Structure formats: structure tokens, C-alpha cells
Amino acid sequence: MLADPYGNHFVRAPDIDPDSDAHLVSYLVEVGDPCEVFSYSIAGVKVSDFVTPEYYNVYAAEGEPLDHLGRLIHPLEVPAGCYISWIDPEDGRWHQKLPDGEFVTAARKAHRTRNPRDDRDESFPADEERHDLPALLERFEAVPTSA
Q1: Parallel, antiparallel, or unpaired for β 45-48 and 84-88?
Q2: Is 45 exposed, middle or buried (0-12, 13-18, 19+ CB in 10 A)?
Q3: What's the confidence (pLDDT) of residue 3?
Q4: What does the pLDDT read at residue 128?
Q5: Dihedral in degrees, nearest 10, Cα atoms 107, 112, 115, 121
Q6: How far is Cα 30 from Cα 82, in angstroms, rounded to an integer?
Q7: 90: left (phi > 0), else alpha (psi -120 to 50), else beta?
Q8: Distance between CA 104 and CA 98 in Å, rounded?
Q9: How far is CA 55 from CA 21, 70, 83, 95, 121, in A?
Q10: Res 81: pLDDT
Q11: For position 45, what pLDDT does the model report?
Q12: φ/ψ of residue 58, rounded to 5
């Protein structure tokens, strides 16, 4: 919530969809979602790993930390069990890489005056598992986290 409490910050970078020509798209900055299957403990409380600003920088120097725990190797990497969302200016729609690795496109165009996070959530069918961390960890067998 400190990085973007209103859910309206975007970063432009190449499209990660393998069927794309890597043109620039606008990624919604969400610091936990790209690595949420990884966690660590603070005073016995499990907290989610989080990405650094370099995660969204495709020109980040090699070795720059992309997430707090150092599990991510490449900018815009999305491990199994995690997801990332973006708007493609070519079609005006929300796109996502889902926890299972599938790439999907919303049926309707993104709404320009709504809160982006809310608009994204309404653009895709409800996916209860997307925010159910225990189910994600079980399904994708995340690497055990350190204490």
C-alpha cells in the first residue's frame, strides 16, 4: 500500500506475452502480485515478498535486486502462482499473465477514468484462487520460504 495506495501507477515496458512483438505496454504496478508465492517471517508473522522498482526496469543492471528475497532473476518475470496485469495501447484492453502461466485478454476495453486496479478486477471474471495464497502455494508447490 505504500508503493501505490490508490492503485493507479503504471510503468511502460515491452509486452511479455510471447505472441506479442514486444511493443510497449503499461504495466499496473503491484508490488506483491508478481512474487506473492514467496514469503518470509517478521516476528513470527508471514509476509509476502515484494518487487523493487528495478523489477519493472527491463534495462536493470545484472545483479540488481528485483524482489526483496532475491528469487526473481529477470525484470517482469512472473513465477508460477503469481500474476501481472497491463493495458495494451494497441487494443485498449487489460491483459494478464495468470498464476498458471496462461496469457489472457479482457473482453472489454479498459475504462480511462476509473481506478485502474478496480477496472482491471472488473475486466476479468472473478478468480477466487488469484488471492488465495494457501491454494496457490499448494497448487504451484512454491519453494519453501525462509524464516
Answers
A1: unpaired
A2: exposed
A3: 75
A4: 58
A5: 10
A6: 11
A7: alpha
A8: 7
A9: 20, 11, 13, 18, 22
A10: 87
A11: 93
A12: -65, -10
Residue whose cell numbers read 535486486: 65
Per the structure block, which three cell numbers stand in for 19?
A: 505472441
Question: For residues 32 and 51, what is the distance between their CA atoms, to the nearest angstrom?
Answer: 7
Phi-psi region of 44 (alpha: psi -120 to 50; beta: other; left: phi over 0): left
Whether 3 contacts 15, CB under 8 Å: no
The three grid cell numbers given for residue 84, joined into one nine-digit string: 501481472
Question: What phi and psi, each to the nearest 5 degrees, are found at residue 13?
Answer: -160, 170
Q: 140 near 99, Cβ under 8 Å?
A: yes
Ranges under pLDDT 70 in the chain:
1-2, 126-133, 135-137, 139-147
Give the per-residue pLDDT at 147. 34
